[in-house]
Specification:
This is Alpha/beta fold hydrolase. The protein has one domain: Alpha/Beta hydrolase fold, catalytic domain (Rossmann fold, 3-Layer(aba) Sandwich). 46% of the residues lie in helices and 17% in strands. The chain has 16 helices and 8 strands. Helix 1 crosses helix 16.
């Protein structure tokens, strides 16, 4: 994976972030979701590199080979604002004053927070298979709770750690098909989830989502804060986001003036299952080809 990419660690002061990066063009930052690592982009990143972009793929704080501070009772060390600060520090370390930013799943919430807090840094934002956390929770009903039950299970104290670390490969294997992921990507994921520290950090991501991150988004809405840059929304045809909410672009228009995007024919992990379509859609958006 990632032939021709450099791999390095960036000390952000609060965390040590593992980063894969290559290229000299406009900087594209790709943020992965749960429980993946930066390796989830191994098919998309080279295609964007071929399009003339510099490509940066970090492991988010606590995921993969990145390490952050110990969890806290208020979950703030794993808030999206804290993780977004890591990405900002990576950009400084790599010499990028502006970025084109894409996030999938949990990574989209980090990307959203970074774009809201630092519009001077984020030139364009792409979100994949997501709407804001507060929008999910405002619409939560029996269908959502049934389909997304893991949000509420992961938020429980101690129990999820005991369940998952008892047999992490069994827990994650049903949604981690090596044939779809690629063998090396799959091996990297399995190595990560065997580490109880990584499992704890991933759970803290969800605990922060239902507490500090929710409050941050609610404060943004009350203050009338909106995304200042163009936004592209991509979503999977074989996931349940559209089933729950219809066209997700309608929801994102409550947060941004310029929203475009489309459905991708894929399951949830669309960077692994439909890399050519994802790289094409992102490249077109980042080059501003309408």
């Amino acid at each position: 994976m990632f032939e021709g990419f450099d791999a390095t660690e960036v000390d952000t002061g609060a965390a040590r972030i593992f980063v894969r990066h290559a290229g000299d063009g406009p900087a594209v930052y790709l943020l992965h979701g749960h429980p993946r690592t930066s390796a989830t982009w191994h098919r998309v990143a080279p295609l964007l590199l071929e399009q003339g972009f510099a490509v940066v793929c970090p492991d988010l704080r606590g995921y993969g080979r990145s390490r952050g501070p110990a969890p806290a009772a208020d979950h703030a060390p794993h808030s999206k604002r804290a993780v977004a600060a890591d990405i900002r520090a990576v950009a400084r370390a790599l010499g990028h004053e502006r970025m084109l930013l894409a996030g999938h799943d949990r990574g989209s919430y980090v990307a959203f927070r970074l774009a809201l807090d630092h519009p001077d840094l984020v030139e364009r934002l792409a979100v994949m298979d997501s709407i804001p956390i507060s929008e999910h929770l405002a619409r939560a009903d029996a269908r959502f709770a049934t389909a997304w039950w893991h949000w509420f299970f992961f938020a429980q104290p101690e129990i999820p750690e005991r369940v998952i670390t008892a047999d992490p490969e069994a827990w994650y294997r049903p949604k981690a098909d090596p044939a779809k992921m690629g063998a090396a990507n799959h091996a990297e994921l399995m190595a990560a989830v065997r580490d109880p520290q990584t499992v704890r950090a991933m759970l803290e991501d969800y605990r922060a989502g239902l507490t500090v991150d929710l409050r941050d988004e609610q404060a943004d809405r009350a203050a009338g804060r909106r995304l200042e840059m163009p936004v592209c929304v991509l979503w999977s045809s074989r996931d349940d986001l559209e089933d729950l909410y219809g066209d997700p672009r309608r929801i994102w228009r409550d947060w941004a003036d310029e929203v475009r995007g489309r459905r991708i024919e894929s399951g949830h992990h669309l960077a692994e299952e439909a890399p050519e379509d994802v790289a094409s859609a992102l490249g077109e958006f980042f080059r501003d080809e309408r």
